[in-house]
């Protein structure tokens, strides 16, 4: 489900439900109360004429049910394709530069028109069919009006009731059909509500995170020892990504995780921070199962610098302070200086008070990476996770960042997901993953001497470099 589709469900669909209840609920209560009061007065005048008038109601119900049954699928389709359009617009707007770069405007315009045509068709059909409801109800009400008039005339001739009673009764019949027609109109509005509610509850019924433990372990005095004990995980139960992962990492060690694309390197980190639950096995921090921590406490132990940078619309100062909301301005600047970001920040307009736009496109990709590194330094975590953190910076800046990282890593447990194997030669332990399993582990020198999978990966990078040069 796209981001735009989710947003449509929590905005458009919820708003449809809110508007419907706000506008129609009071009308529904008024109509039902009016119908009950009118029926009582009609019975006091003539039970026979009341019975005839009430016999018209099943006809109205049948018409309403028929129209609702036919039009409901169009109301549902209308809400569904409104979500599709929102999803596509959000997706294209977020990646507009890529769409233009690949000349895909016509393709997306064609797709938008296709969704829009279906939305137009379903909206037109649903409104047309629901619009028939009021005229149909009025027509049936008029039939009842005529039948009651004829019966009242006959009873007046027979001296059973007075002519004045007929006039009163006819007025009550009119008062009976009006609220019934209004109720039908409410039913019309409720069709959109039902279609929207189905989408909202489908979203709400998605599987939630496993509830927090009621007796969480204390987070104090954590050193940073991490153990993976026969970890098994798959995003889907029938497609296992991590098959049998076991490793023991000691406090202060620098652990590099390497392997080809799809081997499960980033997945290991996500499991460590409990973004997903294990199929089997366990992950321990200082001998405590991560399930025994509160998620908030567990994630406070970690600092992350990812290959995909994330910065929000706000000042540079606010973005760096995101790592520690209680940090002072001086601490933020010190962290930026440690990440070698202070120099370029001071060269920007308004320095630390420069506002980044929504996509943070008013600074370069390398500068974004430096800011996220500064944020991690400010967080001062027990365990540090680096996912190819220097991939977007130039060689000179990379050297400077690695010096800063060396200071940051000291005394901490460090997980480094690396694609350029030359950057992790000094790692205490290298875990080589392939197809969800650790196929080799050891230091850089030891793994090269074995001349196994790691050696092939390492040598292939230099072969590729030589070919490129």
Show the helix and strand layout:
Layout: H1 3-45, H2 47-94, H3 96-101, H4 105-131, H5 133-157, H6 163-204, E1 226-233, E2 242-249, E3 254-258, H7 265-272, E4 280-285, E5 288-289, H8 295-300, E6 302-305, E7 314-315, H9 316-321, H10 329-338, H11 342-347, E8 355-356, H12 365-379, E9 383-387, H13 395-409, E10 413-417, E11 429-434, E12 437-442, H14 444-450, H15 453-468
Helix pairs in contact: 1-2, 1-6, 2-4, 2-5, 2-6, 5-6, 10-12, 14-15
Please characterize this protein's 3D structure:
The strands form 3 sheets. A 6-stranded mixed β-sheet has the order 6-9-10-3-11-12, with helices on both faces. A 4-stranded antiparallel β-sheet has the order 2-1-4-5, covered by helices on one side. A two-stranded antiparallel sheet has the order 7-8. Helix content is 60%, strand content 13%. The two termini are 43 Å apart. It folds into 2 domains: 3-204, ABC transporter transmembrane region fold, CATH 1.20.1560; 226-468, P-loop containing nucleotide triphosphate hydrolases (Rossmann fold), CATH 3.40.50.300. It has 469 residues and is α/β, with parallel strands linked by helices.
> How many separate domains?
2
DSSP strand count: 12
- Overall average pLDDT: 79
N-to-C series of helices and strands = HHHHHHEEEHEEHEEHHHEHEHEEEHH
Q: Please report the number of helical segments.
A: 15
Structural class: alpha/beta
CATH superfamily of the largest domain: P-loop containing nucleotide triphosphate hydrolases
The share of residues in extended strands comes to: 5-15%
The CATH architecture of the largest domain can be named as 3-Layer(aba) Sandwich
Q: What portion of residues is helical?
A: 55-70%
Distance between the termini: 43 Å
Strand order of the largest sheet: 6-9-10-3-11-12
Taking pLDDT < 50 over at least 5 consecutive residues as the criterion, the unreliable ranges are 464-469
Radius of gyration over C-alpha positions, nearest whole angstrom: 34 Å
Q: Please identify the top-level CATH class of the largest domain.
A: Alpha Beta
Biggest sheet descriptor: 6 strands, mixed
State the CATH topology of the largest domain: Rossmann fold
């Amino acid at each position: 489900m796209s981001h735009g589709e989710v947003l449509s469900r929590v905005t458009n669909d919820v708003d449809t439900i809110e508007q419907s209840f706000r506008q129609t609920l009071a009308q529904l209560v008024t109509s039902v109360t009016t119908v009950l009061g009118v029926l009582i007065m009609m019975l006091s005048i003539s039970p026979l004429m009341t019975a005839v008038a009430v016999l018209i109601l099943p006809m109205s119900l049948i018409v309403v049910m028929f129209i609702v049954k036919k039009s409901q699928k169009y109301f549902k389709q209308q809400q569904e394709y409104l979500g599709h359009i929102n999803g596509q617009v959000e997706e294209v707007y977020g990646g507009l530069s890529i769409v233009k770069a690949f000349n895909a405007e016509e393709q997306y315009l064609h797709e938008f028109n296709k969704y829009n045509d279906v939305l137009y068709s379903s909206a037109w059909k649903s409104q047309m069919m629901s619009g028939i409801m009021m005229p149909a109800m009025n027509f049936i009400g008029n039939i009842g009006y005529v039948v009651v008039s004829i019966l009242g005339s006959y009873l007046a001739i027979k001296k059973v009731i007075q002519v004045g009673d007929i006039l009163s009764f006819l007025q009550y019949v009119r008062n009976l059909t009006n609220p019934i027609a209004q109720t039908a109109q409410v039913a019309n509005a409720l069709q959109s509500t039902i279609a929207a509610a189905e989408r909202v509850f489908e979203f709400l019924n998605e599987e939630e995170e496993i509830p927090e433990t009621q007796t969480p372990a204390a987070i104090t005095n954590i050193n940073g020892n991490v153990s993976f004990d026969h970890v098994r995980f798959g995003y889907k139960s029938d497609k296992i990504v991590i098959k049998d992962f076991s490793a023991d990492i000691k406090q202060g060690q620098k652990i590099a995780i390497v392997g080809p694309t799809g081997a499960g390197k980033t997945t290991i980190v996500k499991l460590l921070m409990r973004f997903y639950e294990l199929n089997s096995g366990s992950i321990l921090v200082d001998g405590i199962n991560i399930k025994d921590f509160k998620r908030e406490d567990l994630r406070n132990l970690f600092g992350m610098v990812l290959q995909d940078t994330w910065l929000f619309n706000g000042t540079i100062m606010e973005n760096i302070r995101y790592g520690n909301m209680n940090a002072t301005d001086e601490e933020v600047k010190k962290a930026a200086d440690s990440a070698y970001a202070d120099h370029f920040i001071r060269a920007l307009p308004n320095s630390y008070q420069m506002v980044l736009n929504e996509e943070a496109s008013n600074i370069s990709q390398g500068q974004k990476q430096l800011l996220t590194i500064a944020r991690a330094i400010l967080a001062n975590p027990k365990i540090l996770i680096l996912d190819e953190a220097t991939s977007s910076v130039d060689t000179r800046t990379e050297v400077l960042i690695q010096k800063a990282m060396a200071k940051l890593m000291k005394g901490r447990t460090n997980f480094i997901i690396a694609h350029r194997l030359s950057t992790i030669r000094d790692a205490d332990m290298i875990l080589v993953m392939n197809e969800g399993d650790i196929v080799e582990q050891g230091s850089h020198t030891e793994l090269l001497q074995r001349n196994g999978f790691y050696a092939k990966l390492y040598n292939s990078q230099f072969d590729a470099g030589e070919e490129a040069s």
